[in-house]
Design a protein that fits this description.
The protein contains 9 helices and 2 strands; from the N terminus they run ααααααβααβα. The protein is mainly alpha-helical and about 180 residues long.
């Protein structure tokens, strides 16, 4: 349960919102924009899909970020404000990827301590599927942990992994009863 709250797309927006709200309270971003304080004080003002949009904005002035903020009543955000918001989204998503990678690495190390074999890890969820470069962030952790042996770990999106896993467990249980 705690692991899910640290890395699930359902919660990352709230984590990022809390960080932004704290920076607003300290007058470090969105200075003199009262609506920003009200907006970010709402629980989970940012959704993970908004974080994805922010993370994907590679324009020099972060126009997509500016548009998102304006659509939510936060006008006059400076480029500094937008850059800080993008950095927060990056830090929160990187933290989630590191936690996910650590959990996967723990299982892989238990199964194959020397990581001699190739392993394919199926990952379900919109965060892995849709968040820009999330899979690369996980792979980067594997490279830090395993060096060149990280190439033995492949990540694939497992659509409806929970449902398929439950079906496999049910089939194995039914077979073992026979």
């Amino acid at each position: 349960m705690f692991l899910e709250k640290m890395l699930s797309g359902m919660y990352l927006g709230e984590i990022a919102s809390l960080i932004v709200w704290d920076l607003i309270k300290r007058n470090l971003i969105f200075n003199n924009i009262p609506i920003a304080f009200k907006s970010f004080s709402k629980r989970a003002f940012l959704k993970t899909e908004n974080m994805s949009l922010i993370a994907a904005d590679e324009t020099t002035n972060l126009g997509d970020v500016e548009e998102f903020l304006a659509e939510n009543g936060i006008n006059s955000a400076t480029l500094h404000d937008r850059l800080v918001l993008k950095r927060i989204c990056s830090l929160v998503s990187t933290r989630a990827a590191k936690i996910a990678a650590a959990a996967i690495a723990g299982v892989l190390t238990w199964m194959d301590p020397e990581l001699k074999n190739k392993h394919t890890v199926g990952i379900d969820g919109s965060l892995f599927e849709k968040y820009p470069r999330f899979d690369k962030k996980i792979q980067d952790v594997f490279k830090q942990l395993y060096g060149s042996k990280a190439e033995n770990i492949g990540l694939v999106h497992a659509k409806d992994g929970s449902g398929k896993g439950a079906a496999i467990i049910a089939a194995v249980a039914a077979q073992s009863e026979k």
